[in-house]
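debug: dumping io for the single-chain case to check the tokenizer round-trip. Nothing else runs in this session.
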Amino acid sequence: MSVGERVVEGASSVWQQILSYLWMSAKSVLPMFSRVFILSLVIQRAAAEIVLRIVEWRPKPDFAAIKDVSATG
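debug: decoded output
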């Protein structure tokens, strides 16, 4: 083989090694990211539920709720 062919072969093998390393690291990192994303969605949903309960709270049954008094609520 000529020198140019050896350089091309070496570069392609290095590229294949880089791709295989990236693929292996992506297979181990992606499940972790998806779990963190799902956990953040659950936390966000719980926080929204708490805010809704605060907005709908009535100090006494005869009083108006915060959502009825406030234009923002």
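debug: round-trip ok. The first helix runs from residue 3 to 55.
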